[in-house]
Design brief:
CATH class of the largest domain: Alpha Beta
Structural class: alpha+beta
Order of helices and strands: HHHHHEHHEEHEHE
Helix content: 55-70%
CATH architecture of the largest domain: 2-Layer Sandwich
Radius of gyration: 30 Å
Length: about 300
């Protein structure tokens, strides 16, 4: 039921956004035409460039540079047409031509300025995205984890929802990486990342926070349920290791659930302490703080082990 509601809401948001963009464009186009009609009623010698420059700046309202080019082209065309269709002149024709030439120059200059602003915004957005993405796995990094964990903590505290955090570490990765080249080690990181990502819901958040350490945020998931999911992931990774004894890769996991008095530091520290318990107990384990016991279940995708009504 919740997933259906989410789909409808997402569809309405997309439709609203699309309609808003079309409405914004229509307003700017209408303003450009209105400026042209007013210009036709004025004699030559009256400055016409400033209003066209304003609507070009208004094209910042629309993402992408194509619309700016359209508005600038219309401004150029209407400026030239206005020169021939104006009813009369207040100044000598030479002065009127200079006036129109300056108008054309202003339109071109404004269009160049606006497109540069738009491209700078695009580059800035791309740079911001890159700073949140791990280059090896393509998933989010520690910076994104710390930022989004704060957001999730505030959301869960406000609505009194559960939030579990899992810290996942690849066992003996230092020894493994020393025995192989960096490219092969990166392949292992990518493989483990995919195994984790494909076994959690789309609403769960996954990050690579260190060389061989990952983090998972489980919104609206209690400690016992989070442990069942991580156990399923651990078994999947271990099953692949059994098929390739020479490159046996296993993972250890520590999980903690948000308390009313927690902040990011306390919550992550408890998850790391739980991970340390898994390491001390022989690795290839899932531990929680406080400890919870889960019944042993057959190996199934963790994404299927939870109710889809979440």
């Amino acid at each position: 039921m919740r997933s259906q509601t989410f789909s409808v809401t997402a569809g309405l948001k997309f439709l609203f956004r699309d309609c808003t963009i079309q409405a914004n464009g229509l307003i700017i186009l209408t303003a450009t035409l209105f400026i042209f009609l007013i210009d036709l009623q004025l004699p030559l010698g009256v400055a016409a460039g400033v209003p066209y420059a304003l609507v070009i700046f208004g094209s910042l309202w629309i993402s992408g540079t194509r619309f700016t080019y359209v508005i600038a082209s219309l401004g150029l065309m209407f400026t030239v047409l206005g020169f021939y269709l104006s009813p009369g002149a207040l100044v000598p024709i030479e002065t009127a031509m200079i006036n129109r030439g300056l108008t054309l120059l202003l339109i071109v200059s404004t269009a160049i300025m606006v497109t540069k602003i738009k491209k700078a915004n695009i580059d800035m957005s791309a740079l911001m995205t890159q700073t949140l993405i791990d280059p090896v796995t393509g998933y989010k990094n520690r910076h994104a984890f710390e930022t989004e964990l704060d957001t999730e903590i505030l959301r869960c505290e406000r609505y009194h929802r559960d939030l579990s955090v899992a810290i996942v570490d690849i066992d003996h990765f230092k020894i493994f990486s020393d025995n192989h080249d960096s490219r092969y080690a990166d392949d292992v990181i990518k493989r483990v990342s995919r195994d984790i990502k494909t076994n959690i819901r789309t609403s769960d958040l996954f990050y690579r926070i260190d060389i061989d350490v990952f983090a998972i945020l489980f919104p609206e998931t209690d400690l016992s349920e989070a442990k069942e999911i991580c156990e399923a992931i651990r078994k999947k990774v271990a099953a692949k290791a059994d098929k390739d004894p020479e490159n046996k890769i296993t993972i250890s996991t520590g999980i903690a659930m948000l308390r009313s008095t927690d902040n990011q530091i306390n919550l992550c520290k408890r998850a790391e302490d739980a991970l340390l318990i898994s390491k001390r107990n022989g690795k290839n384990q899932v531990s929680t703080l406080p400890q919870v016991v889960c019944k042993d279940k057959p190996l199934v995708a963790a994404i299927l082990s939870r109710s889809r009504s979440d």
